[in-house]
Amino acid sequence: MTKTTFDLVVVGGGPGGYVAAIRAAQLGMSVALVERAELGGICLNWGCIPTKALLHSATVLRACREAAHYGVAGAGDARPDLTAMVARSRKVAGRLGQGVAHLMKKNGVTVFAASAKLAGAGRLALDNGGTLSAKHIILATGARARELPALPVGERIWAYRQALVPAEIPKSLLVVGAGAIGAEFASFYRAVGAEVTLIDMTAEILPQEDAEVSALARKAFEKQGIRVLTQCAVTASSLTATGVKVALDQQGKRSELEVDRVIVAAGIVGNVENLGLEQTRVKVEKTHIVTDGMCRTGEPGVYAIGDVAGAPWLAHKASHEAVLCVEAIAGKPVHPIDPLCIPACTYSYPQVASIGMSEARAREHAAKTGGDIRVGKFTFAGNGKAIAMGEDQGLVKTVFDAKSGELLGAHIIHPEASELITGYGVAASLEATEEDLMHTVFAHPTLSETLHESVLSAFGRALHA
Predict the structure, then answer these.
(1) How far, in whole angstroms, is CA 306 from its chain's centroid?
(2) What sections of 116-199 are H helices per DSSP?
(3) Helix, strand, coil percent values for the chain (each to nearest 5)
(4) CB 377 within 8 A of CB 455
(5) Are 343 and 337 in contact (CB under 8 A)?
(6) Strand (E) positions, 240-276?
(7) pLDDT by residue (tens digit) across 379-435?
């Protein structure tokens, strides 16, 4: 007979949910995980992982095309095999999904393939007719793509799922939304040969990033042939014989654009429906569950983590919240996550990664507190490893409190930015000052030397600038 009473039940098997289940099992709790679709959630199956597999295929393609520059002959005629790229991407996602299933079994987590909703104190009703009981319930139901009335998703207007499994490369493509998801799809499809237009309603692409870095990303995109339109919105669309015609409004200037396909990447909304929240004290704001620093909701014994609990919508934030939440339930000493210590990464070409405050935000903060800031910059054009790799375009930017030396923010644009930002993440978590960072020995030759040089630059001590 299947067990139905547990110490903890987790609803949702994404990077927040399955990590919460593992950590709880490690702490000796009896744990159940309820997942209505695939283990690993959207991130593993239809987000973080498959997109990175496609983007790596684009990186290999780009390297082949540029091989002659590195003294490698015969690779310049490389062309994309979209069917193979997509198949590899799905295989990677499938392998990791199997890995999550193995981890559930290894840790003794009981998995229920169902949907679940709250059904009274400590109770969950499953859509297959079953009922689970638990003292603690974690909601990790994630989020989904935001729908735009002017762009109903279908055969030619895609959300991320359709964009990950295309039957062919569109000759022309409009990407609506220039945040991380839109920028990544624009990079991939441009690399495999599509004519790409990228639009956003804000004044710059990657609007959550430092303005200087966003501007550099835009220049890099345009150099690759991506058409970028900012302060631009789609007001209407209609299907043509072979594609989609869209009406654009760019600061009052109206125009039309016809493309083969459209990708809608205009943000996400939390999956808060059909969870039985209406009869509880759980509060929802703008489609996201409100929680405190320990991931507790307004309903005793009910917690929320990950995308359903609000920004930043990042898998690693969800996983970290999972551990924090479970350890708090177990009575272990924990500390709320500092949002300024959570790195953000966009895996476009080039990549953009950041942590903490932008320069503009840091200046606003300093003005309110009567302080000042120091800003350091170092370009990869001055880094030996970057030059040797042929990837010498990009920038590292650091922002410090002028008086205390606290690292307020760090921003990187470079093909390896996502790997480099963790150095600053560790520094921020350890509350390292500029003096600590300046006294750190960085290996040579490495790309990470740029992190050091940017810190030195902020204090007028850069050696290679």
Answers:
(1) 12
(2) 160-164, 180-191
(3) 35, 25, 40
(4) no
(5) no
(6) 244-250, 253-259, 261-264, 268-270
(7) 999 999 999 999 999 999 999 999 999 999 999 999 999 999 999 999 999 999 999
| HSE-CB for 294 with a 13 A CA cutoff | 14
Catalytic-role residue among 411, 444, 452, 464? 444
Does 82 score more than 70 pLDDT?
Answer: yes
In this predicted structure, the answer to whether residue 1 has a pLDDT above a threshold of 70 is no
* The token pair that represents 51 in the structure block: 């997109």
Q: Is residue 246 within 8 Å of 264, Cβ to Cβ?
A: no
Exposure string of 239-277, with b = 16+ CB inside 10 Å and e = fewer, is eeeebbebebeeeeeeeebebbbbbbbbebbbbbeebeb
CA neighbor of 217 nearest in space, from 69, 397, 455: 397
Distance of CA 256 to CAs 96, 231, 266, Å?
42, 15, 19
Instruction: Tell me if residue 320 is catalytic.
Output: no
* Cβ neighbour number for residue 118 with a 10 Å cutoff: 22
Hey, is 226 helix, strand or coil?
coil
